[in-house]
Amino acid sequence: MTKSSLMVLSVMLGAGIVSWVVLLLNSVQVLVTQAEAKTLDIPGAPGSPAGPAGPV
Predict the structure, then answer these.
(1) Rounded Cα gap, residues 27 and 16, in angstroms
(2) In terms of domain of life, where is this protein from (predicted)?
(3) What is the pLDDT of residues 14-47, one digit of tens each?
């Protein structure tokens, strides 16, 4: 392998790892906000979901 192809591979691997970390952080944030919404589910509170939550 040449050095340039190794650099391209390492850059692609790094970008893939970064995107996976971003996806994981986003899913964790969604779960945390859903849990907070359930614990703070006060009837009639502004912003509380009236119907069932979105797609599970």
Answers:
(1) 17
(2) Bacteria
(3) 999 999 999 999 999 988 888 877 766 655 555 5
Residue 36 CA to residue 18 CA, distance in Å, equals 27
Instruction: Give the pLDDT band (50/70/90) at residue 8.
Output: very high
What pLDDT sits at residue 20? 94
Residue type, 15: A
Instruction: Give the residue extent of every domain in the chain.
Output: 1-40
What would the DSSP string read from start to end of 11-44?
HHHHHHHHHHHHHHHHHHHHHHHHHHHHHT--TT
Q: Which of 20, 23, 26, 51 is nearest to 37 (CA)?
A: 51
